[in-house]
Amino acid sequence: MTDFRAGAVRYQVTDVDRAVAFYTETFGFREVMRPGAAFASIAKDGLTLWLSGPKSSGARPLAGGVPQEPGGSNRIVLEVTDLETCVASLTQRGVKFRNSIQSGPGGLQIQVEDPDGNPIEVFQPAEGNASSTATGGGSTG
């Protein structure tokens, strides 16, 4: 069996510079690599996010010419300790929300969008629940 290891999450973006600025200034990611205008790798804690512009190899059409485009429902999850305060701060920054704060058995969550419409879930674990990242994953329910 092949030995797989976690790599990264790739998001399709229309403007790599704008996406890097959004993630670094809004969520505190750091730039890891930017070999040109078509691609950047950014990271925060144990999460690496690849931002693929239209001219990157990771944005080329799939079989049958199916385009790879920004958006969708799959998303990265960023954890916070106080979601209401975070939402207020994001609102002041003009960040676009997909929904209102939702409550589930694992905690509270809300979805925001990057400038290209890629979703980001901001999650606050329920009181008494361990961090979702402590075990390498988790669910809000």
- The CATH superfamily is identified as 2,3-Dihydroxybiphenyl 1,2-Dioxygenase, domain 1
- Structure class: alpha+beta
Low-confidence stretches: 137-141
Q: Helix count?
A: 2
Order of helices and strands: EHEEEEHEEEE
Largest sheet: 5 strands, mixed
Number of domains: 1
Distance between the termini: 32 Å
- So what's the overall shape? globular
The proportion of residues forming helix, as a percent range, comes to 10-25%
CATH architecture name:
Roll
Mean pLDDT: 90
| CATH level 1 name | Alpha Beta
How big is the Rg?
A: 16 Å
Here the CATH topology equals 2,3-Dihydroxybiphenyl 1,2-Dioxygenase, domain 1
Strand percentage lies at: 25-35%
Number of strands: 9
What does this structure look like?
By secondary structure, this protein is an alpha+beta fold. It has one domain (9-54, 71-125): 2,3-Dihydroxybiphenyl 1,2-Dioxygenase, domain 1 (Roll), CATH 3.10.180.10. It contains two helices and nine strands, in the order E-H-E-E-E-E-H-E-E-E-E. It has helices spanning 16-27, 83-92, and strands spanning 9-12, 30-36, 39-44, 47-52, 76-79, 96-97, 102-104, 107-113, 119-125. The strands form two sheets. Strands 5, 6, 7, 8 and 9 form a five-stranded mixed beta sheet that branches. It is globular. It starts with 8 loop residues before the first strand and ends in a 16-residue tail after the last strand. Residues 137-141 have low confidence and may be disordered.
